[in-house]
User: What shape does this take?
Amino acid sequence: MEKIKCLIIGSGPAGYTAAIYAARANLSPVVYTGTEPGGQLMLTTEVENFPGYPKGVQGPELMEDLKSQAERYGTEIRYEHISNVDFSGDTHKVVTDSGHEIEANSVIIATGASARWLGLESEKRLMNRGVSACAVCDGFFFRGQEVAIVGGGDTAAEEAIYLSKMCSKVHMLVRRDELRASKYMAEKVASTANITMHWNTQVAEVLGNDVVDGIKVMNHKTNEETVLPVTGLFVAIGHKPNTDVFKDFLDLDQVGYIKTVPGTAKTNIEGVFACGDVQDSIYRQAITAAGTGCMAALDAERYLVKKGIE
Assistant: This one.
């Protein structure tokens, strides 16, 4: 069984930032990238809100920069998925898809959360060509344009209000005849002049060849189909944290996000830390993920020092 001082599971901004800090602290980190090396930013085109890139940067380029920086300080990157874990002992055991067994003194989990999508072929085809799951990330590109957002919870309401400040019109598509959002958020949406509500409505198809130039929606009570002339479609129906493999050992919230001790990256298991979107259901930004990746590496370093592991 291979022994590793600091094992990092996941390779988005959180995982690579944790690796940079852990490597500089001589923790000899090993990163397992998982099935989606680089995380969600690999599916993103222009990133304009990550500090240090005044002209913006392509998502894959940003992840390659973070990966290269981690490798520069001695991080080992392995392109494989962790399929099983056992956090019941003093050291933490994991098994990869290929059956390779590892015993780690510390583990940093940075497996992220995956956006829930509608499941349409046209949605997938036009992803990042007008289809997005993050209004804060991509709303800027739709200034003065007409857009639509799908969802009825607090996140959808917040993103609709955010978009209303820069877009000419926001169509909010809700499957039910009322919002699931809190009363406060529902009232705020209702009082925003350029947000138009579409109740009992779902997207039937995203229109456009190279970019979105409209969406076909259907009222499932009347079966009436309508085409909305939008240039952007934002899907805000939730995220699924990638925590299934950890659920038997770590404390998770009702959605599945890993619970951490406030102000730290510590989980309920000593020596296991969590960072990035796998434990953050609120901000979900590359820069906040990177910040918690730093926290996780510092917490892991202090833990190993306290344990006398060098």
